[in-house]
């Protein structure tokens, strides 16, 4: 102490030398309000500053503690022993045992009970003269019961409440970063231990520091999942965390919390909380009256609304209203409890939980429980709560064993290749789950704790199964005996039913003690009469181990208890505990150790990046293989969304590592905006090309819906406007700044984290993520100013590998931006390529287009007069599927020949090509003034000039509006139709059908409509008999006339035969239904689709016939019609019995599916049959 004081005086003296006295006086007497408030620890006392420590005459008081190290966390026993040991210090002479006697007895004569057994032993009483106090401890059975938990769960519910606890529990399950804060170290420890105990049968696999020393606060920047406890006074009220994107912050003392955005809802959350609250009420546990807003939104139906930061995620938490610094504001008043919301929760409890099934607890208002009785009630309550939590996992994963992929290799080979192998069929498992649970389950299946459980299950092939999984499997077996072996469980909430059984086992064990130790005896021949303070114990006496010590395992009772073990073999106490990797942290870490720990973080980030990109690549390639007709399960939208969200989390962790000064909640978005500001400052003197400015999405409401290109001049002659050059389809900028501006213009995103995720999704979809990040990191000056030298982003070799792994994602196509922001308004550029002929290049009519996509469709958008290119804005359409183009056939020259139409999303850059190659106008072609075009996504490898050149020539590919091809052979037609039907069948057997793709299968190239058109054109008689311009629709109209005549002529005959033959009536009734539906469908098409030509009406009829399941039943009546014999040869499909049978059989499977058509196909015609 004197040495430290001397060093302090020397430092003060050297610091004040060279400072003028007047200056020192001014500093001493200056206004101290400029200092931070927390620096002023006490009132200024000039006299106190002059006092120094003198070892000769001054006493120095230091803090001491009494600690007890145990093999098992017997919290109540250890606390009772230490507390009473301190109270038993004799302050005056009197009877009683020495302190050494109690300690000696505990060290050598009290063993840890074996699994399934209980033990009674003696500890000091609260006064020296009293007899030793009896305590009973137990060890749960490793095969039947949950591992021991001595920490009181009652306190956790009292401090946090059920709602906050479930939210915290969800964050821990999804392996978010969890930061607990309290001014009481005991609270930090209890909450940490209890929340991890509730994870059973899973176990926390990451950093676990319930009480973080003040000297290790830099570990809060670790880019890994963690559970850490922070003392409320250690940081002075100001706390800076590098990343808040994945942070779950809970202030235990203030009952305030901040949860990550886009946190999915725990399955059956409302009923789960209701069951817990029923138990809390039965045990009269006071708990927080606050109701989580998430529960209230669930009741109101708001749970299904789209998220602002991830609109397609389905389930999410409400937006956080305050930042972490707001939560850390100690002076913020607490909100009032919401009584209406509480009453709503109570109603749910009454409806969903049978409280009679829970054994009532005796009314303890009049009876005062002894400490031992309170401890037993705590164990009972802990057991009941943990059984409820375990029951949730049992219900959710009751069939998990069916999806575990057993290894086909030996143990060493399997371990070496573990990172590249699938051990759980996640796709199939998720396909059986309710849709509303997929956001949570898809993320939980990606966690390390779930992977560890499955790995342990697989490892049981070569070694003994883990005890935790044995208990879990035993509970699942009990459930299956009760409800059956079905893999798919009921969607109803099933409350826990075995609470009474487990509590009965516990009660019997504590009541019927298996072994009782002897009371302590005096070991000191001469003990002191009294002490003024807690003495130093006699270490010589305490180190004399007896011959029959329980620590040596040679006592007679221990052999007796072993023989009573159910397995017939000793089980070590550690087997009943769930293993948790412990991170050893020392407050005295040297710079070398800190550097090594930082390097470990860097290596882990790189490893995570490699594994995530590889997983995304493999899963996406597997999904595309399924789409091409190969085996396997495709990647669902929820799973893909989960993988992309995990990539966003990884990028946030990377950008948060080694950050010097935090600028916002998202470190990545802060870096992007600072780069943007830097570039804009550097480019202020440069001229700006208006064509490269990003569209202002925030002011779309003020703009007109359609704006023609500025370069389009109405005064140009038709010859000058007949083609569109490359300058009219200028390529979009691929710069980083362009994409940042596009994201900033999205008005439905409110947070920095939301902006960062939208930017990542956009860059990933445009296959520019690695390139953009490389550009961002190329600004070395900005990087050095924001990040420490030890940061991941400043490790050159690791950074290059990181960017390389991200570059591999360019091998697959993602629509993670397009599919997940359905409410965002986007600009679409339309370019029309008319015929090169001057007479067909323009139209005097008022033309329009209507576009359909996977998310929505537009109303008719007018095309500016004389414009071949224009821009319009609309809510996100998704992936474009069809385009309708038409006009009103007015003016002097309305006829218009359109070769192609190209539509480009000006934000994502996706370009869709719609081939046409047909006339629009009356009296030409088939007389259609409206065409339906099926689009195809243009690969990014095709540049604008190449696309313009290909669109300037007549289309070669097939679209419903393209002229008929040469007639194919019979075998080719059969093969073509078979492929079309097979594609539709595969589409409906996929796990998730993509909207819009069915239209391409029906009307696109090689689809059902063009195949059937070729079928009906095959075998026509000489067309000179019927005229040059004959269409299949003309044949359908004649068949309708035949059907109408047949219905009238045969009506009387069927009525007469009705009474004679019931069977004939049934057959006739089916035939009449088919004929009537056919005729009615033709009438509806003629009535509602007057703008369509004959080919368009034929296409509409085929699509509606498929929807009404009329396609294959109508073929035989059509073959019997009089017009068929007049218009078809004998070798046609309708007149050849063999070909007709083939046609009916090949189309019959389509009647097994519920066909849902786009509105663009139906023209408003509803289902009629």
UniProtKB/TrEMBL annotation:
It is found in: Membrane. One of its GO terms (molecular function) is guanyl-nucleotide exchange factor activity. SMART domains: dDENN (SM00801), DENN (SM00799), RUN (SM00593). Residues 9-35, 545-585, 703-727 are annotated as: Disordered. Belongs to the RAB6IP1 family. The keyword Protease does not apply. This is Denn domain-containing protein 5b-like protein. It comes from the Eukaryota. Residues 711-727 have a biased composition (Basic and acidic residues). Residues 638-822, 999-1162 form the RUN domain. Residues 826-934 form the PLAT domain. Residues 1-464 form the UDENN domain.
């Amino acid at each position: 102490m004197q040495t430290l004081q001397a060093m302090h005086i020397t430092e003060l003296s050297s610091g004040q030398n060279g400072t003028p006295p007047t200056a020192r006086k001014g500093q001493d007497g200056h206004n101290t309000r400029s200092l931070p408030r927390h620096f002023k620890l006490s009132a200024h006392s000039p006299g106190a500053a002059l006092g120094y420590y003198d070892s000769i005459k001054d006493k120095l008081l230091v803090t001491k503690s009494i600690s007890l190290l145990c093999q098992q966390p017997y919290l109540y026993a250890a606390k009772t022993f230490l507390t009473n040991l301190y109270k038993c210090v004799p302050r005056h002479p009197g009877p009683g045992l020495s302190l050494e006697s109690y300690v000696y007895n505990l060290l050598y004569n009290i063993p840890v009970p074996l699994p399934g057994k209980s033990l009674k032993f003696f500890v000091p009483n609260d006064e020296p003269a009293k007899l030793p106090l009896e305590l009973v401890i137990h060890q749960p059975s490793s095969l039947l019961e949950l591992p021991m938990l001595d920490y009181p769960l009652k306190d956790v519910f009292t401090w946090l409440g059920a709602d906050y606890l479930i939210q915290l529990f969800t964050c821990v399950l999804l392996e978010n970063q969890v930061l607990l804060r309290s001014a009481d170290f005991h609270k930090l420890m209890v909450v940490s231990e209890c929340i991890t105990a509730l994870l059973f049968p899973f176990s926390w696999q990451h950093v676990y520091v319930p009480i973080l020393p003040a000297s290790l606060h830099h570990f809060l920047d670790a880019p890994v999942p963690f559970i850490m406890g922070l003392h409320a006074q250690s940081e002075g009220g100001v706390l800076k965390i590098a990343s808040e994107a994945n942070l779950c912050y809970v202030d235990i003392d203030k009952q305030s919390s901040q949860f990550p955005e886009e946190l999915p809802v725990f399955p059956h959350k409302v009923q789960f909380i209701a069951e817990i609250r029923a138990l809390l009420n039965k045990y009269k546990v006071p708990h927080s009256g606050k109701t989580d807003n998430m529960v209230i939104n669930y009741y109101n139906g708001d749970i299904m609304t789209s998220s602002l930061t991830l609109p397609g995620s389905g389930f999410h938490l409400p937006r956080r209203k305050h930042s972490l610094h707001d939560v850390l504001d100690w002076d913020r008043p607490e909100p009032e409890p919401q009584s209406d919301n509480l009453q709503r929760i109570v109603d749910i409890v009454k409806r969903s939980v049978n409280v009679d099934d829970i054994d009532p607890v005796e009314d303890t208002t009049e009876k005062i429980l002894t400490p031992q009785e309170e401890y037993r009630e705590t164990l009972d309550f802990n057991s009941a709560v943990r059984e409820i939590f375990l029951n949730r996992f049992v219900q959710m994963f009751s069939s998990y064993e069916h999806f575990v992929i057993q290894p086909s290799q030996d143990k060493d080979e399997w371990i070496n290749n573990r990172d590249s192998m699938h051990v759980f069929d996640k796709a199939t498992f998720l396909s059986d789950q309710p849709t509303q649970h997929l956001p949570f389950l898809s993320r939980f299946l990606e966690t390390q704790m779930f992977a560890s459980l499955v790995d342990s299950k697989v490892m049981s092939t070569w070694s003994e199964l883990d005890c935790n999984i044995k208990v879990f499997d035993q509970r699942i077996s009990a459930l299956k005996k009760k409800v059956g072996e079905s893999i798919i469980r009921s969607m109803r909430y099933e409350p826990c039913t075995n609470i009474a059984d487990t509590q009965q086992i516990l009660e019997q064990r504590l009541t019927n003690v298996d072994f009782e130790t002897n009371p302590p005896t005096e070991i000191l021949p001469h003990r002191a009469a009294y002490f003024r303070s807690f003495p130093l114990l006699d270490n010589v006496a305490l180190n004399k181990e007896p011959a029959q010590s329980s620590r040596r395992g040679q006592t007679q009772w221990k052999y007796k208890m072993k023989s009573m073990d159910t397995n017939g073999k000793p089980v070590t106490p550690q087997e009943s505990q769930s293993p948790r990797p412990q991170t050893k942290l020392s407050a005295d870490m040297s710079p070398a150790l800190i550097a090594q720990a930082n390097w470990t973080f860097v290596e882990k980030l790189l490893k995570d990046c490699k594994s995530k990109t590889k997983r995304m690549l493999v899963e996406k390639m597997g999904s595309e293989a399924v789409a091409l007709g190969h085996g396997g399960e495709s990647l669902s939208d929820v799973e893909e969304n989960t993988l992309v969200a995990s990539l966003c989390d990884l990028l946030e962790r990377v950008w948060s590592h080694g950050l010097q000064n935090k600028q916002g909640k998202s470190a990545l978005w802060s870096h992007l905006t600072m780069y943007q500001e830097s570039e804009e400052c550097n480019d202020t003197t440069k001229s700006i090309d208006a064509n490269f400015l990003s569209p202002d999405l925030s002011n779309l409401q003020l703009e007109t819906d359609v704006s023609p290109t500025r370069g389009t001049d109405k005064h140009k002659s038709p010859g000058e406007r007949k083609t569109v050059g490359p300058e009219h389809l200028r390529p979009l900028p691929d710069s980083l700044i362009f994409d940042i501006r596009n994201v900033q213009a999205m008005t439905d995103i409110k947070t920095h984290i939301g902006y960062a995720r939208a930017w990542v999704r956009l860059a990933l979809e445009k296959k520019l993520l690695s390139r953009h990040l490389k550009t961002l990191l190329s600004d070395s000056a900005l990087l050095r100013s924001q990040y420490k030298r030890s940061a991941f982003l400043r490790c050159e070799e690791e950074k290059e590998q990181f960017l390389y792994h991200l570059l591999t994602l360019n091998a697959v196509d993602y629509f993670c931006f397009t599919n997940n922001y359905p409410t965002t308004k986007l600009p679409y550029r339309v370019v029309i390529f008319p015929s090169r002929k001057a007479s067909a290049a323009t139209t005097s009519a008022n033309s329009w287009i209507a576009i359909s996509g996977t998310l929505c469709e537009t109303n008719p958008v007018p095309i500016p007069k004389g414009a071949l290119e224009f821009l319009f804005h609309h809510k996100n359409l998704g992936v474009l599927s069809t385009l309708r183009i038409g006009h009103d056939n007015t003016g002097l020259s309305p006829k218009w020949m359109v070769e192609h139409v190209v539509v480009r999303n000006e934000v994502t850059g996706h370009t869709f090509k719609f081939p046409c190659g047909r006339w629009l106008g009356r009296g030409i072609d088939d007389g259609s003034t409206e065409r339906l075009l099926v689009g195809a996504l243009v690969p990014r490898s095709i540049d604008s000039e190449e696309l313009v050149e290909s669109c300037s020539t007549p289309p070669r590919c097939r679209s419903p509006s393209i002229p008929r091809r040469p007639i194919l052979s019979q075998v080719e037609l059969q093969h073509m139709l078979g492929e079309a039907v097979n594609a539709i069948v595969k589409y409906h057997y996929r796990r998730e059908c993509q909207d819009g793709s069915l239209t391409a299968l029906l009307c696109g190239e090689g689809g059902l409509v063009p195949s059937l058109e070729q079928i009906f054109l095959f075998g026509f008689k000489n067309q000179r008999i019927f005229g040059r311009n004959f269409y299949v629709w003309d044949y359908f109209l004649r068949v309708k006339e035949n059907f109408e005549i047949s219905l009238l002529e045969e009506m009387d005959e069927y009525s007469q035969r009705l009474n004679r033959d019931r069977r004939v009536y049934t057959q006739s009734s089916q035939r009449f239904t088919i004929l009537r539906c056919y005729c009615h469908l033709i009438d509806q098409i003629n009535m509602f689709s007057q703008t369509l030509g004959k080919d368009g009406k034929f296409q509409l009829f085929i699509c509606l016939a498929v929807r009404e399941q009329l396609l294959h039943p109508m073929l035989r009546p059509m073959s019997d019609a009089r017009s068929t014999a007049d218009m078809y040869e004998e070798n046609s499909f309708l007149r050849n019995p063999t070909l007709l049978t083939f046609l009916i059989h090949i189309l019959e499977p389509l009647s097994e599916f519920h066909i849902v058509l786009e509105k663009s196909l139906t023209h408003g015609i509803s289902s009629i049959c």
